[in-house]
Specification:
alpha+beta; 5 helices; 5 strands; binds FE2/S2 (inorganic) cluster
């Protein structure tokens, strides 16, 4: 009788400014590597199928469902989890502050994913990426058609709801979640500018769900 051991891989992951050398099953998802191997349990496993957004992290500044990524494919990426959004002194990211101030959660299970996704989303809007509810799908450059420079998208509740539609909240805390994100958006009550800020460098200028 023969047994077949799962193939193991040595992978170097860059997470929240630290580098981790891991020997893991080659099939390990980024989410499982973060939670089970590294011990960063802020990213949550909801569906494990890319449908709920609870596992959202930032990969090179772009929001991504970590349950759909293989850890071994993330060697050259800078990964930011909810644990890495606050400043080194513990100062909350504007989005984290806004979620607290707005009481934008009930059980809190979806909250890390919502905050990370919102951080990436604010970067997408700042870069001029349109959504399905934007008045125009053509980037509104300030130097004429094809200038390659997109004006930032002004966010309202409809834009936030559409852009955050990949993140589900089974508690139905959406009303306050939208309010918190608008607070953290440019011009919002929380001082805006949001983006990934903190240690999630790059999220302010690059968009798209990876
Ligand atoms: S756990 Fe990844 S999208 Fe649901
Ligand atoms: S606060 Fe419970 S799932 Fe969103």
């Amino acid at each position: 009788m023969t047994t077949t051991e799962p193939a193991a891989s040595l992978v170097s992951l860059h997470v929240n400014g630290a580098t981790w050398q891991l020997t893991i099953d080659s099939r390990t998802t980024l989410l499982d590597a973060l939670r089970e191997t590294i011990g960063l349990t802020g990213s949550k496993k909801g569906c494990d199928h890319g449908q709920c957004g609870a596992c959202t992290v930032l990969v090179d500044g772009r929001r991504a469902n970590s349950c759909l990524l293989f850890a071994v494919a993330m060697e050259d990426a800078e990964i930011t989890t909810i644990e890495g959004l606050a400043g080194p002194d513990g100062t909350l990211h504007p989005l984290q502050r806004a979620f607290v101030d707005r009481d934008a959660l009930q059980c809190g299970y979806c909250t890390p994913g919502h905050v990370c996704s919102a951080a990436g989303m604010l970067g997408e809007a700042a870069a001029g990426w349109p959504s399905a509810v934007s008045p125009s799908l053509v980037p509104d450059g300030d130097g004429g058609e094809g200038d390659g420079h997109s004006a930032a998208v002004a966010l309202d509740a409809a834009e936030v709801r559409e852009r955050m539609s990949g993140n589900l909240c089974r508690c139905g805390a959406y009303v306050n979640i939208v309010a918190a994100i608008l607070d953290a958006a440019p011009g919002g009550q929380a001082g805006g500018g949001g983006g990934a800020g903190g240690r999630a460098e790059g999220a302010g200028g690059r968009g798209g769900r990876a």
